[in-house]
Structures are given as C-alpha cells and as structure tokens.
Amino acid sequence: LGLGSIGGTAMAAPSDLTPNDYEAITHYNNFYEFGVGKEDPADYSGKFVTSPWSIEVAGLVDKPGTYALEDILKGKQIEERIYRLRCVEAWSMVIPWNGFPLSALLNQVGVQSGAKYVAFETALKPDEMPGVSRRVLDWPYREGLRLDEAMHPLTLMATGIYGKDLLNQNGAPIRVVVPWKYGFKSAKSIVRITLQEDQPFTSWKDANYREYGFYSNVNPQVSHPRWSQATERVIGSGLIPKRRETEMFNGYGDEVASLYTGMDLKKNY
Amino acid sequence: MPASLSGPVNRVLRPVPAWPLYILAVLPPAWLVWGLFQGRLGVDPVKTMEHQMGLWALWLIIAGLAVTPIRRILGVSFLKYRRAIGLVAFFYILLHLLIWLVLDVQIPAQILADLTKRPYIILGMAAFVLLIPLAVTSNAVSIRRLGRNWRRLHLLVYPAAVLGGLHYVILVKGIQMTPILYLLAILGLLAFRLPWTGRRPR
C-alpha cells in the first residue's frame, strides 16, 4: 500500500520527490532533549533506551490504557510515505518514512464524541537526555493537533526511515509526522497520547506564543517574526544549498486546505 | 600576577611581532573552504561556514576587549596585538556577512526585506557598520592624523560588541545558554571600564 491507498485526492500530494540521503536525515536534527546543535541528537542520543516501549493512551477514549509498542504495531500495515519536511527555521528535506496512519491507532482505541484535540507527549528521561538539564523548553516536550488534523490520512505514526527502524535522533521508536506543518509539530519518541476537549499545551507556543502558534501550518505568507518563511534552503541540493519558494501547506494544500476553510490563517498561525 | 611573573611574560612577548597574526588569520577561512570541498562541514555546509565566521569574530572581539583588563589585572600587555585582533575580527565579520548574502539568502529582494524587518539582522548589520570606520582608520597614518579623536572614534567597538552579542542571543530559537554567556562576557569586559571598577594602570 502506498499513497494510492488513501484515495484519489491524496495522489495530488507531491510525488516526484527525491529523498535526502540517510546521512543527512540522521545527522541534521532538532531534538532539543539531546542538545540544541543540529548534530547533537546524533552525537548524544546513544544512551536513550527505546526498548521496551509503551504509549499511554488517555482521556476521551473507549479503551484507555498503556499499550506496548508491539500491541500498537500488531495488525498495522507499515507503508512508505515520501514526505517533504519543512522546518520552521526555513530549511527543508525530503524523508522516506515508514509508518501507519495515526487514524488507525485512534480508531483502535475508540475516540469518544467529546474529543476535539489530540495531545502528544515526548519521553522525558533526564539520565538519557543530556539536553534537558537546560531549560530551553518546559519539558516534557508536548505537541498537539486538532482531531480532524490527527485523523487526516496524511498524518503518520512513523516507525522507520528508508526501511530501517527509527534512530534515536529521529524520534525512536515511534513518532508523529504531519507533513503540512512545520517540523516541530511532529513530536518524537511519543509516550502519551491524550484525547481531550481543550486545545492542548504545546511546548513551543508556551516558550514564545508570538513566534510559534498552535497550528503552525507551513505558510509562505506568514513570516516568523524574526525571519521570512517565503523561501527555504533545500538541504542536500549541492555544495551550496539552493533556495526554493515555500509552498502553502508545504505542497499538501489539495489534501488539507479544506480543514481550514473560513479560518484566518494569519491569526491562527 | 606578581611583577616577578608578568615581567618574564612581557619579556618573552617583546620580540614577538604582530604581523604573523595576519597570516594566521587566513587559516580559519581557508580551513572552512577546504572542508567545504572535502564534505567535512556537515549536512548544511553554508550554515557551518556562516556560524563559524560569526563565532570567530565574537571570540576576537572578546579577546580585543580583554587586552586592557589583562594588562591592568595581570600586568601582562598584549597591546601591540590589539590592532591586528580588531582587523582580523572585522575581516571575519565581513566574510560572515558575505556568506549570508551570497550563499545563504541568495535572493536580493529577501535580503532587503530581512535588512528592514528582522531585528537580529538589523543589530548585526548595525554592528558591522559601526566597525567600518574603525577598520578604515586602523593604520599608522590615521592614528597620527586623528590624534585624540582616534581614541574616541575607536570607542565605537563597545556598542558594536554589545550589538554583536545581542545579535547572537536573539537569532537562536528559545533562550539558549551559549549566546547568553558570550553577551555576559562582553558586558563584563565593558563593565571593567566603568570608572569605579577599573584599576588604574601602573
């Protein structure tokens, strides 16, 4: 099963993408629990233990509880999804993820009718994460999506890259990938998923709400207060990276624009 | 440092001229260019070069600001190297700026937008502009011609250093420790110059 399995409109998603090489994808990361440098996650995540792993599913669900990773993966079809990744720092990559739609997991646990949002929490293990001794963010790292965003067929729970298990620096053993939003929305190394009525606490919005909104959809028309989002540096495009114009919703507008009909995306950035 | 120690150090320094610094100064940029073609600068080589040149410039600005406190507290004088330190710092800032313009942003319209709208760019550019007259007058003829005004003019390095430190603090995401330490180092070295903190030279 590839992108074709999610219906006609999904085929309009960028499909002629050439993925970055594995070295770049695994050595150019933002994962502040391991340090703020781009190579810190690769250098300092070696002690991070990701097996055994479980995710606690809580809140407005029919079957709350702590699910072992094996039980989550059981019966899930792992697909390859080649997605653009657009960082809020105005660089981009293309990543060949392996994973399954988040909706499959949400359907498995049974979302109750009052739930409007999904909150994600990243592991917090100070002994294995040298970056958390610095309070750059209010740990643990938390992110969230509106329920319809979370249920969207493009929203992935990723477990691998290039057919290999995720490395620690990429959010092992399981993470979210939301390709039409800035990279920081895609929380890594997930330990808790909560279905709730209120908009979740999100770490970057908490750190600086003027710069990082809850939605954080890729949007070339809305500047980050400190830099333009109109273009992006394409990592791996030669000795001197080229710039390309950033696309609305990172090129996934045909699939996701309807989620935001009637919303002022300048206000809801 | 007691005179028994600072004396010998100064004696060792006395015959060491400043001009080799200008030759050594070529090494970091040359190393970066070499690394670029060797593929040693990581996944994002342009950012690596840009950041490295910015950091080298800050290190040298801090070193230049430290000359006076070291002379007053330890009695060891690096005074004759200070002009070279300053000029090399300016050279690195110029390279930092050129890398940003030509290799990073690339698009003229966006450079202009960044220059007018982005606080960290404005601060960095202001620091660069303040340093231009200092670089231009860092020669024996200008020192003679300007007389006392030369010293006054070169006090511009103080605001330029603070702007450079702030530029680093506000360009990073979130509150990060490293750039704050750089800024504190700069502010500390400037605080030393306040009339009630600095000790008189011997």
From TrEMBL, chain B:
Membrane topology, as annotated, equals:
Multi-pass membrane protein
Tell me the organism: Pseudooceanicola albus
* Function recorded in the entry: Part of the MsrPQ system that repairs oxidized periplasmic proteins containing methionine sulfoxide residues (Met-O), using respiratory chain electrons. Thus protects these proteins from oxidative-stress damage caused by reactive species of oxygen and chlorine generated by the host defense mechanisms. MsrPQ is essential for the maintenance of envelope integrity under bleach stress, rescuing a wide series of structurally unrelated periplasmic proteins from methionine oxidation.
Coiled coil spans: none
The biological processes this protein is annotated with in GO are: protein repair
Q: Where is the Ferric oxidoreductase domain?
A: 54-164
NCBIfam families given in the database record: PRK05419.1-5
The annotated subunit structure for this chain is:
Heterodimer of a catalytic subunit (MsrP) and a heme-binding subunit (MsrQ).
The entry's keywords:
Cell membrane, Electron transport, Flavoprotein, FMN, Heme, Iron, Membrane, Metal-binding, Transmembrane, Transmembrane helix, Transport
- One Pfam family name is Ferric_reduct
UniProt keyword annotation of Transcription present: no
Q: How is the co-factor bound, per the entry? A: Binds 1 FMN per subunit. Binds 1 heme b (iron(II)-protoporphyrin IX) group per subunit.
One of the entry's Gene Ontology molecular-function terms is: oxidoreductase activity, acting on diphenols and related substances as donors
Write down what this protein is called: Protein-methionine-sulfoxide reductase heme-binding subunit MsrQ
What is one term from the GO cellular component aspect held by the record? plasma membrane
User: In which compartments does the protein localize?
Assistant: Cell membrane; Membrane
Q: Where are the transmembrane segments?
A: 12-34, 54-74, 86-107, 119-141, 153-171, 177-196
Cofactor list: FMN; heme b
Family assignment? Belongs to the MsrQ family.
